[in-house]
Each structure stands twice: as structure tokens, then as C-alpha cells.
Amino acid sequence: MDRDWMHLRLEAFAGLITEYWKIRQVNGDTSVAKMRLYEAEPTVVKILQSLDPRIAEAGVLGDTDWGGLSISESEVRRGIGMLADMDEWAIRLAPDAPSLPADKFHSWVWDAARTFWESKHYRAAVHAAATSINAHLQDKLGRRDLSDAKLVQEAFSDKAPETGKPRLRIPGDQTDPGVQTRQRGALALGQGAFSALRNPAAHETGDLTEQETLEQLATFSVVARFIDQCQVVT
Length: 234
Fold this sequence. Notes:
Radius of gyration: 32 Å
Order of helices and strands: HHEEHHHHEHHE
Oligomer: single chain
Strand content: 5-15%
Strand order of the largest sheet: 1-2
Structural class: mainly alpha
């Protein structure tokens, strides 16, 4: 909705009402003032009904028993008040929602992304976080021959470790179905994060929004915690 336009139209209509009553008080000719009111009323009614369908259902103007003009000025004033306060309602009456402080993300993520976040280079922040995780994973496994999604695939593979190919294992009894499920989930999440988030951050143009960036950094933070908590088996 164009609230500024709506507010101006209602204020202008309120001005016409004031003008009409002034003329009537001195027993002047109100025909022109009435005509202007009737011309403006349809738009005013549409505006009021868009704010609240219960407002001005029967219109704003009407005829009195003695042939005068009745005006529901209170409806117009109510609409002006609603428009004046709607932005504040959105802020003051919004339900409390949990916050996600970025500085509580895994240090591999936030330490790498922070400078770019503060300078509002959001896509670069995501790319830096992914690069940081990749470097820590390479260091943990002692591998430099693979990176990103391929490295995650090798790291979380359910295959037994081989020479030069250590694996990551979720802590716990490896025969436990719950541990096995988390192992497969960490593999899927890590590959998905690098393929769906890191690759676009590295190769696509245009920046992300703050919200998109926060969500993507949070995803990489989960990946980082899995990697950090896993045991290396050789």
C-alpha cells in the first residue's frame, strides 16, 4: 500500500469537511463544497475499507432527514490515525522472536566472515567462511589434494579409511543407528553447503541480503561444528 498517498487523500478530505462546516455555519452556499466532497468520497471509502473492511461500509456521506449532509468524520479520522501509527505497530507490536547472534557462530565461520560482514560484502563473507572450513578440514585430515564438496565426501564417507585417506567419524558407537544417521546427515549437509552456498558465493555476481547471509553462515556454522567434533580415523 502507498501509505503516504492514502494519508494525503484522507487529510485532504478532512480539509474539505472543515471547509464545508465553515460555510454552513455562516449559512453560505455549500453546493460547491458538497460537490467536492462527493467527488472525493469514493476514493476515501476505498482507502478506509482497505485499512479495515468494517470502516465506512455504508459510505462516509449521507443525507439528513431535512435535506442536509451527514458526514462520518470519525471514520476518516480513524483512518488517518491508523495510517499514522501503522509503522509503529509493526515495530512495537511485533511478536518477540529469537535472535541469532553471529558472533556465536563457530569461530571458523565468524572469524573468517566478520570483516566482510562489517563492510557489507555479504557474498564475500559466505565465501570466506566456506574457505575457512575447507582449510580447517584439510588440516584436520592432512590432505591438500581435495577441497570443498569432494573433500567432505571423502571425509564423511562410510568406507573404511585407506592410506592417505583418513575419515571423520561422529563420536559414539559406530554401530548405533542414531550415530550412523548423524554421519550420513553430516555428509549430506556438508556437501549441500559447499555445492549450494559456497559455489554461488564464489562464482555468481550480485550480493546477498543480510538475512540470506546470516542463514548461510549459520548453515556453515553447523557444518563446522560437525567437523570440529568428529574423530579422525586412519
